[in-house]
Amino acid sequence: MSSKAIRFYETGGPEVLKFETVEVGEPGPGQVRVRHTGIAVNFIDIYFRTGRYPAPLPNGLGSDAVGVVEAVGPDVSFLAVGDRVGYMFGPLGAYSERRVMPAEVLIKIPDGIDDETASTIIMKGLTAQYLFRQVFPLKGGETILYHAAAGGVGLIACQWARALGVTMIGTVGSDEKAEIAKAHGCTHVINYKTENFVERVKEITGGKGVPVVYDSVGKDTLAGSLDCLQKRGTLVSNGTSSGPVVIDTMQLAIKGSIWVTRPAMVDYALPRPNMLKMADELFDLVLAGKIVSKPQQVFSLADAADAHRALESRQTVGATVLKP
């Protein structure tokens, strides 16, 4: 069976992405074939495309999509043809119309959640879950700093913080993004282009700082993030969109015995029962109306390069999705 897919043969800019016809076979033992209905675009895709994260070439791209099970291989008892599923693990290649996948990485989508919503919450929603509920478990009542509050994970994080009773201070890059983050539940929003976020955090917290900073920006915000922390506070470095982070450990002592972690989703979501438990918590919040998520930018699969250009330019808000 033939299918359209994005492939890349060398690392580089968006122009290395090629829209091609590929062959998709029948699922083998422990596998299913999925026809995609929505494919999420994440910053990690850019890391693979540029070579920051190594991958064998040539290769497909993308690891986060939703779709419908078309065929089920032997030894798969927990999925059936017609099931709606999503995934965030497995081999690269989500930028495609259909593909064969290991069944063990697939998550069934509840009937009350449509494909449009599901396409924005698998990796992004589960990222918010492990950051807020596992890496630095929030119980309610805390005041936190979250960078990129109007991004794909950020808008879910705003709503999750509100649901937990957490005061979220979020940074954004424009007044328009500030309004969007605030509308999604961010308590205090700082436009880092017009305000000093360290001074504002100290002002909001009465000079105390915050117990945790979630920083997906990296190089540009590192120094300021450390300055926002209380003594023995925690920097969760969960991304490097502005460049890699280099930390002088002596500065961690000088700034108050700061803890730093660079978490990876795989270490929190696997084995499979962990992932399903995380998904249940996320889906419950979505079904209860406490998290609402829809694609803010939609591109055709053939225009994946344009989607990457938009994301890299920091002009996007919320989730970006490709439609096969």
UniProtKB/TrEMBL annotation:
Highest taxon in the source lineage: Bacteria
Domain Enoyl reductase (ER) intervals: 12-322
InterPro entries associated with the record: ADH-like_C, ADH-like_N, ER, GroES-like_sf, NAD(P)-bd_dom_sf, QOR-like, Quin_OxRdtase/zeta-crystal_CS
Pfam family, one: ADH_N
Alphabetized UniProt keyword annotations: NADP, Oxidoreductase
PROSITE patterns in alphabetical order: QOR_ZETA_CRYSTAL
Family matches, as SUPFAM superfamilies: GroES-like, NAD(P)-binding Rossmann-fold domains
Presence of keyword RNA-binding: no
Signal peptide segment: none
Keyword NADP tagged: yes
Protein name, as recorded: Quinone oxidoreductase
